[in-house]
Amino acid sequence: MIHSTQIEVLCHPYSEEDIMRHLMSPLDFSVEELNDLLDLANDIEAHPDKYAHICAGKKLATLFYEPSTRTRLSFEAAMLNLGGSVLGFSTADSSSAAKGESVADTIRIVSCYADICAMRHPKEGAPLVASTKSRIPVINAGDGGHQHPTQTLTDLLTIRSLKGELGNFTIGLCGDLKFGRTVHSLIQALIRYPNINFILISPEELRIPDNIREDVLIRNHQNFAEVVRLEDAIPHLDLLYMTRVQKERFFNEEDYVRMKDFYILDREKMKLARPDMMILHPLPRVNEISVEVDDDPRAAYFRQAQYGVYVRMALILTLLEVKVC
Amino acid sequence: MLNVGKLNEGVVLDHIEAGRSMDLYRYLKLDKMDCCVAIIKNAHSNKMGKKDIIKVECPIDQLDLNVLGFIDHRITVNIIQHGEIVSKKELSLPKQLVNIIHCKNPRCITSIEQGLDQIFFLADEEKEIYRCRYCEEKYRSSRKKK
Question: Which of A36, A112, A212, B132 allows an S-S link to B137, with CB 3.0 to 4.6 Å?
């Protein structure tokens, strides 16, 4: 028989006094903490066996209120690689949200079932609401068009691993810069590194939102330019970050159809690029990168997905405060 | 000529833009307070032509006057004790607004989550810009510049 106080302990692994860390935005970590996280990810990449059972007995809850293949599987693979287990749901229809349950109530319950949680939600700020009521660390796995911090960690790890440093480059961000949360998060993270020039490539309708332009780029005196034609920007780039025009962010189908093929990166455009320009993409891609580019050695987007698993493993270990002996 | 008696203890809000006193009544949640409130509309003003005035008889600490800075910092706030004006409060933009304004972003969690406070933080004091705590949607203060 389990005594009631034991149940209390089981359901509340953290006391009220504990300062629990969550990840809502890439800015939640200082540059030094990010460096430690990326170092840990690189060590995981180099020595996967060392980490294979380190989270045995720990559970990750994946609360995905909107469809995602890549991010959810990447989180699940990360936890499984650490020897932990996963539970959760992959659409709102298969959760209590379909019955009208609030995010706050859901996370209170999930806090009793798991040790850490990754939440994706179509409503912006939902993971932040969860973090205020949670007894376990909450990771924002994407909230509407707002933030996608673990993609940013993936991008930073990819850039640092393949370019050798974070800083001293010109990056072009191309496509849906208005609703593209990966772009917003990445810009916020990159402004903390030295000597980075931003070229923002988008149609007029999908320009970067003013909170990023005014509060992030202008306020922090960053060098940036906004252009419409990819061909004009590509010769100047060290990195090209392509994004998909996301159908699910449009209220109007006609607007989506008009915008979806605005940019297509193909062999012809790649001829204009520098020989060492690296192409990144948060994936999934639709038409914005032609498949003929996949074999180009400058295409780094599939390696980027692999780095996503390493960095999520490092993040889980960091938030759970699990140390390697 | 309308006469409203002097307060013994409370607050007199003077130089309110004519017609806005009921907005302030709601923002200050005076409808929920069990105290004497006088609202004077369209009073004569040498400076403004017409103005509104609100008199509230209650202990000063029962009113959250910070919100006035968000609405209109030209309002004169007179603190009354023992029937006399003892101080005038300077108004500035509050760092945070709770349940004063609402987020208009249909993608924001505040549009569906029950019981969630509407919280805005002051993102840019110079431009008087507030942002939703959850989605960072911009809300520009509607108050008039000095």
Answer: B132
